[in-house]
């Protein structure tokens, strides 16, 4: 399936519209999965059947040399590197916890009922993110519950230039703009 419009939300919505499964697993094209990944997700889904969307750990691995301070940034602001780890257990997500797009699974029924907003997401040089946060906020407003599949971790390969100072500044500016938009949309 080809989606020619720029933006991850367009691609996700196009893929969803062509899907027919009970669950849709979203992964980035630069991730490495453990062999038991799908089986582990199926186990988590069976453990808490009321959950309609899931997330799992996203652990960055830089391909190349990075600055000495990269680990410190990763520890304080993991989102700068699209990293997320809420622990090894399978559990319900709190209302403030949101899966990251590199590792998320959504029930087919929810995905076909609720589209990703194309107003968010990296495109055309814009670093305004938030498509997952917006999506899961709207899902929760409809009574949907999220889950954390701690055993379903994956490795997210990142080029070394993602740890450059200029990339971090751009990412932080984009995150600030994203949060302002999300707060405005939520009426805060």
Topology of helices and strands:
Layout (H helix, E strand, L loop, with lengths): L7 H10 L5 E5 L3 E2 L4 H11 L5 E3 L2 E6 L6 H7 L13 E3 L10 E5 H6 L17 H11 L4 E4 L4 E6 L5 H21 L3
Parallel strand pairs: 3-7, 4-8
Antiparallel strand pairs: 1-6, 2-8, 3-6, 5-7
Q: Return Rg in Å.
A: 16 Å
**C-alpha termini separation:** 38 Å
Number of helices: 6
Tell me the overall shape. globular
Q: Numbering strands along the chain, what is their spatial order in the largest sheet?
A: 1-6-3-7-5
Overall strand count: 8
N to C succession of SSEs: HEEHEEHEEHHEEH
Mean pLDDT: 90
Q: What composes the largest sheet?
A: 5 strands, mixed
Structural class: alpha/beta
Helix content: 25-40%
Task: Please report which band the strand proportion falls in: under 5%, 5-15%, 15-25%, 25-35%, 35-45% or over 45%.
Answer: 15-25%
Low-confidence residue ranges: none
Structural account:
This protein is an alpha/beta fold and 188 residues long. The protein has helices at residues 8-17, 37-47, 70-76, 108-113, 131-141, 165-185, and strands spanning 23-27, 31-32, 53-55, 58-63, 90-92, 103-107, 146-149, 154-159. It is globular and about 45 Å long. It starts with 7 loop residues before the first helix and ends with a helix.
């Amino acid at each position: 399936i080809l989606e020619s419009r720029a933006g991850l939300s367009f691609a996700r919505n196009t893929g969803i519209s062509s899907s027919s499964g009970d669950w849709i697993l979203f992964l980035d094209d630069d991730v490495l999965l453990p062999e038991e990944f799908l089986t582990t997700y199926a186990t988590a889904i069976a453990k808490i059947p009321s959950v309609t969307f899931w997330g799992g750990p996203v652990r960055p691995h830089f391909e190349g040399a990075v600055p000495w301070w990269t680990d410190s940034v990763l520890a304080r602001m993991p989102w700068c590197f699209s990293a997320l780890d809420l622990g090894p257990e399978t559990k319900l997500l709190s209302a403030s916890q949101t899966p990251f797009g590199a590792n998320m699974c959504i029930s087919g029924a929810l995905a076909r009922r609720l589209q990703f907003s194309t107003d968010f997401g990296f495109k055309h040089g814009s670093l305004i993110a938030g498509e997952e946060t917006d999506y899961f906020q709207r899902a929760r407003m409809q009574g949907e519950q999220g889950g954390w599949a701690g055993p379903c971790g994956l490795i997210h390969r990142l080029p070394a230039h993602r740890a450059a100072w200029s990339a971090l500044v751009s990412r932080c500016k984009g995150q600030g703009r994203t949060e302002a938009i999300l707060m405005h949309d939520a009426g805060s």
